[in-house]
Amino acid sequence: MPSTLLHIDASARISGSTTRSLSAQIIDHLAPDQTIRRDLADPLAQITETWVNANFTPSDQRSPAQVQTLKQSTALVDEIQRADTIVIGLPIYNFAAPASFKLWIDLIARAGLTFHYTDTGPKGLLTGKRAIIAIASGGTTVGSDADFASGYVRHILGFIGITDVTFVVADAMMVDADSALTNAANTIKTLAA
After folding, report:
1. Rounded Cα–Cα distance for residues 119 and 109 (Å)
2. How far lies 34's CA from each of 60, 83, 105, 193, in Å?
3. Which class would CATH give 4-190?
């Protein structure tokens, strides 16, 4: 059982969300000692030129204003650094991940904190963690040519060092919701605690 779990929901829908329901079922199944909750329906601050300039200023040279500009991002990085397991409820919107999730990624993918560059290319710093992604769609089949979400999520998590990634899939819900939910529930039962 994971000792600390980061639970992220990216659905804009608070009620009636398949991914919120699935991610909650995963949490119940894993029964972690501690859960850090991050709901991306609560808007994150957009990245601005001020943020970029603060981020690229060496940490020991940042002004108090720059530290404040990066405060939310630094808190998000701290959450994922503390977690052993990350559970993400991720709907597919228009064939891709929601903008709120992309913003979260942009705020946590920080050189020197979650990855760094080497002579052979980037190296993720968040190794030894696992991620479980509850992914759902209305019509897009996960893994198809029209799915620009699952491959992105696997790639970006690998970029920051998280290569143990499992998908709990409830796709093409508008075609056959019952089968999609049954398949997802069966996958959850097989997850190691």
Report:
1. 19
2. 32, 9, 22, 14
3. alpha beta
Given a contact cutoff of 8 angstroms between Cβ atoms, the answer to whether 164 and 155 are in contact is no
Record the pTM. 0.95
Inter-axis angle of helices 173-190 and 18-30, to 10 degrees?
10
Which residues of the chain are under the pLDDT cut of 70?
Answer: 1-2
Q: Tell how strand 34-39 and strand 4-9 pair up.
A: parallel
- Which segments within 145-187 are labelled E, that is strand? 164-170
In tens, the pLDDT along 84-120 reads: 999 999 999 999 999 999 999 999 999 999 999 999 9
Strand order in the sheet with 164-170: 34-39, 4-9, 85-91, 130-136, 164-170
The token pair at 40 is 């991306």
Residue partners of 165: CB distance under 8 A and separation at least 6: 130, 131, 132, 133, 153, 154, 157, 158
- Return the SS3 of 70: coil
